[in-house]
Every structure is written in structure tokens, then in C-alpha cells.
Amino acid sequence: MPSKTALALASLCVLGLATPALAQTDREATSIIRSLAPVSPPLAAPMGGASAAAPVRAAPPARRPRVVIAQDRGARVQVTVDASRTRDFAIRFATDSAEIGEYAADQLAGLGAALRSPELSPYRFLVAGHTDARGDFDHNMDLSLRRAFAVRDHLVAFYGIPADRLLVSGYGSTALRVPGDPASGLNRRVEVALVVTVAGY
């Protein structure tokens, strides 16, 4: 049977191996918070005590608002996001896939930690999927929406983010990150943006 000293040393080794990964996640989360947190004065209002079905109230948009049609718990809604508070996540989806693999899950660790932070936890966010330009328009729109749902569901399941904080939308191939290379894997990504207002559609 291993001695207590040996077990203690083994535990320290495991912790030592885990520390760089945890530190990397913490650094990534801090960077994400800086990208997504409202600036002062805030454009988006916290969810507060509003009911889940009520729209989020906010000050009139003053900075780069963008209107998007999204899905909120099965209902189509009109969402205004602050386009200056967004972050792209180059999640390496396989071609024609919305599956969150091990590598993609690792890429979402920082986002999960950031969304749980005090700086971001009062707010709602749009999770929008993107595809490359291969395939037809309707197929890519559906695929991008499935990718957004996959990320949303992963964040809910593994990081305990309330589902009503994450709205979803799909852009298909309408907003390529690398227009000069429409088939590039860099176009297969997910964008997260701070939600300003939500209204029925």
C-alpha cells in the first residue's frame, strides 16, 4: 500500500500538472470579460428581477447597436446587441458538423468561466453560429443555428449557465471572417455578443 507521503507527492504532482491549464483558463476568462462586459455607462441593463418572459430593459443604444432575429427558449425574438461588445470563438467544428468535440470543449472553458463571473453574470448574451461558404444557403443557415445551440447547450450543461441568459441565432455564411477564402475553417466559428434589448417578434 502506498505511504501517505507517496500519496501526498502524487497529489502535488497532479495539482502541478493542472495548474498551467487552470491558469490558462483564468487568463482566457479575464480576456473574454474585458471583451464582453458593458462599458461605463452601460448600454445593456442587468436582467435584475425581471421575469424570464419580460424583455430586458436598457438605456437607448448609444454605441454600434445591431438588430438580430434570434431564438429565446423556442420563441423568435428581436434582439439588439452592442456590436462593440462581441467576441469570436474559432471553435474548430468539423465540416458540416455541429458536434462539440474535446478540442472545442477546451476552447469553451474560458467562456464558461467568464459567463459565471460577477462582471458578466447579470447580463444576457447572443450566441450566433457561422459557417464557411460551402453548401447551399438554407443548409448553412440551419447548420450555423445548430452550432449556436450546441455551444449554448454545452455552456448550460457543463458550466451551469441559465439557459435564459443565452439566446441563439445563425448567420450561415453571410458574415465570413475570411472572405478571401470562403472555404476556410476560420469561418466556422461562434460569435458571442452582449444583449441590449429583447422584444417579441
UniProtKB/TrEMBL annotation:
Limits of the OmpA-like domain: 80-198
UniProt-recorded name of the protein: OmpA family protein
PANTHER family: LIPOPROTEIN YIAD-RELATED (PTHR30329:SF21), STATOR ELEMENT OF FLAGELLAR MOTOR COMPLEX (PTHR30329)
GO cellular component terms attached to this protein's record: cell outer membrane
Organism encoding this protein: Salinarimonas soli
SUPFAM superfamilies named among the record's database cross-references: OmpA-like (SSF103088)
Coiled coil: none
InterPro entries hit by this protein: Bact_OuterMem_StrucFunc, OMP_bac, OmpA-like, OmpA-like_sf
Keyword Metal-binding: no
Keyword terms: Cell outer membrane, Membrane, Signal
Pfam families associated with the record: OmpA
Compartment(s) of residence: Cell outer membrane
Region forming the signal peptide: 1-23
